[in-house]
Structure formats: structure tokens, C-alpha cells
Amino acid sequence: MAEQLPAWLRGQLECFLRVIELVHKEVGALTDQVSQAAPAALPRGMGQLTHEIIEGEIKDWHNFKNRRQVGSYSGLTGGVSGSGEASADLSITKAGNPRLRTSLIECSWRLVLSQPGYWLVQKWRAVLLNPKVRQASAQAGHCRLCPAVARGPLEMEDGPG
């Protein structure tokens, strides 16, 4: 395929390829360095890098007085559209920390895959396994289930005991 390209274009692409390879190598080294800082014992399904990103973004869990503050900081709280007595729940506000929100949603997908017996996964099981819902969520460009699972431990009143 490279032989089909003009020589001048091949030269420029080779330059970009060298830069990309160097950056890829550096990112890999930094990823390994951050991952090694994670504790040896992690919840099943949580990756070392994800753990370190969450810990780095939270910094100190004692800064939060309740679970709603954690949800608000992460941007996993639902919006509300209301006028008078009528109101409608909206998708997540995304007003919080985007790196934390992304890591929590990634962690929620891993939770679904690695801990299918978890009460919150069981609660959403029918919806998670319904291909029509997944297809509609993909077409809409967002998924309400992952944020629901990601903030699930913050909503313990919906869960057991």
C-alpha cells in the first residue's frame, strides 16, 4: 500500500510515524509507572490504572460530607427539567470532573462483566441484556445504564440493606 503513495507523501508520513511511535512508547512507560503505584489488592474487575486515576482525581475522600457530593463532583447526577408541578428526569449533567466520570463509567462496565452477581448489576440485568435498549442507547449517543451503575453505590437506598 505504501508503494501506491507518492514519494513526497510517503516521506511526510514516515516522519509522523516516528513521532507517533515515540509518543506511544512514552505513554506506555508513564502508564506502567502510574499502574505500579496501585495497591496489590483491588476489587475484581478494577484495573490498576483506573484505580490510580480515580484516587488521583478524588485526592481526599474526607472532602465529601455525603454521597450526593461525590455524585455531583463526578458529574453523574441526573438533570431535572421542571416547570410548576411537571418535571422530567434528564440524562446526567456532565457538570463534574470528566476524567473521574469517564473512569467510573469504565469501571462500571468492568463491574457488569466481572461481577454479574452484584446486586446493582442484577437490578439492571434485564435492561443490560436487552439488545433493543443497547441499540437505542448507542443510536442516541449516550448510555444511561453505565452512569446508573457507576453511581449505584451512592444510591444505596435502592439496594439491599
Can you put this structure into words, describing what you see?
The chain is mostly helical. It has helices at residues 7-36, 48-58, 67-74, 98-114, 119-128, 131-140, 145-150; strands at 78-83, 86-92. The protein contains seven helices and two strands. Strand 1 (78-83) and strand 2 form a beta hairpin. It starts with 6 loop residues before the first helix and ends in an 11-residue tail after the last helix. Residues 138-142 and 154-161 have low confidence and may be disordered.
In short:
The chain has 161 residues and is mainly alpha-helical.
**DSSP summary: helix tally:** 7
Shape: extended
User: How many beta-strand runs?
Assistant: 2
Structural class: mainly alpha
Largest beta-sheet details: 2 strands, antiparallel
SSE ordering: HHHEEHHHH
- Terminal-residue CA separation: 61 Å
Helix content: 55-70%
Radius of gyration: 21 Å
Strand order of the largest sheet: 1-2
Strand content: 5-15%
Summed over residues and divided by their number, the pLDDT gives a mean of 81
- Low-confidence parts, pLDDT < 50 over ≥5 residues? 138-142, 154-161
